[in-house]
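Posting this for the archive.
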Amino acid sequence: MNKRISLFALLLLLSVLAAVPGLKNRLAVERTHNTAGMVLEIQDIVGMAYESGKAFPQVISELREKGLSAIAVNELTGEALTQGYSLCGYGTALDFVPNLSYPTASMAALMLNQELDQKIKALILEYLRNKYPKTEVLDVPGGTVVVLPFDRTLAFDAGIVPDFSGLLLAQETGLPIVYRPGSAPKVKSHDLARALDWLLDRFHGIKAIVPGGVVVAGFPDVDAVAAVLRKHSIAVADIEFSRQIGASQLERALFPMILPLHSVTKEEIISRRLSRDVLIDRFVRAARERSVRLLYLRPPELLSVSSLDSTAGEMERIKNRLQNLGISTDWPSTYPLIKTGLFSYFALALVVYALSWQLLLWFFAIEGTTVSGRAALLIIILALISALPLSKVGLLLRVYGAIAAAFGAFAGAYLALEEGDRPVTRILRGFFVSVAVGLVIASVFGNAWYMLRMSAFSGVKLTLLVPPVLLLLLDLRRRIHPESLKEVMSRPPLWGEIVLFALLVVAAGVMLIRSGNVSLVPGWEKATRDLLEKVLIARPRTKELLVGYPCLAIWYYTVRCNLWPRYREIFRLGAVLAFASMINTFCHFHTHLSFTLLRVFNGLWGGLLIGILAIVAIRFLLLPLWKRWGSLLVE
């Protein structure tokens, strides 16, 4: 056993050493790209200036001091133009020019009022000629009418023309501009690209775009737009939790020129009744846990407070909290195009083969087997041979990653659950085995592609499902559970077993559904999470803190006291969740590795502490009740 475990440890150590170059590159990128910029819309800033009675430059100066990093400017939709925004009107051509014949009369039209600044008017006309080559310009009393080549209702929710007054105002501040183009139905991709190229040539302050609307402008052919953005070195914002059609295609075309962005819409704030404190927590959490680079803020609209004072105060709170976490508030840069080296691929192959070999030894109960140097050499040679195919075949890489995650969680749990007189040593051994596997996975997938979530890691669900099944099968085979599978199946079930099985099925279903789904988290758990984040910085995951490690501690107690031999398997299966959750934490490649390590460490000591408290409750509360009523469960 000792020789086998020693060789297993040696192979894991070698895999971690091979993963070091990849980990070093990732840590360097995370250290130099640890910035989150705060963004406000130009309309909101203008409104704050008007409400406060202060000059626009003074408001900008105050907000910059509080952390303002960029200004967002929207492309005006048909709806905004209908409301007369920016001295422009929107409707049909017949609304502005009488006695027009069909079909011109039914076409959409933009009315440029006579009071409109001539510079802005010239910009609008030139932009529209680039975007809609078939536009018709008509001079009428009171202004100029631009007849657009589509029906009025088609672009009511789509972008028509940039807010040039906002762009000019934002450019004067010297802050980076985030431009928000709307959807562009019926506009050919090359026309859209030409108009965007013209716009970027004239407004050099634009540093990123945040596509608006239901459909990304240019979809399904986004290549022309992407080429223009790449020409001007303009990044695209990846809006968290967005289901915008065409966003993933544009991001893939521009990779790695991507800036993750977090925003909370006004509709969500109202419908979910989110307080301002909750919003601040969400922005801080997005930057800290998910490495979000742009925080898109909105001032309070429903509160009887000064918008400027309230927004500036919230920005200052966010800035201070982020700085305390080592995150600066400024305009962020995009990730460099870092790639995974062959050493990391070798490390992944080595850890998969080592875990598979150890699993076979456990299942076939091979005791006293001495693994020769030839066997170790063979495993290393196979890993070397596998490194190149892994670097070339994406599907193969994902399969190996999923296997490493699932087997790594099982190996860590099984080593921690070995019976003996040194539970702390065994728990730490299992913990470090899972950490080693997690570091290897973090090295292989810790490149720009996965850090920007261009592809999702495919082993998360598998890691939650496979290890408990493997542990149950192995326990039944090796009679760690007092009965074999055949014996369990040949007798009538006990009421206690029926209840536990039902609980397991329900818990497994909830766990799999909840994984990655924040909307299913109850309110009390959200409140607990917020408290832990403030106290521990890196909040442990619930599966580790409240289930996995407490079950591990309770299992050791039940074995030592010889309690519930028929039922303590439930604690072994629950303990597996700690190691599965730990591995999955390393698979959040958008999270900084230092934060991940702190998080899993907090999960270990915090979960074991809760387990100790649970043991006290069992000893002084549950056991007396069990002695009185427990017989009903086994009759």
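The longest strand covers residues 68-77. The domain at 34-324 is CATH 3.20.20 (TIM Barrel).
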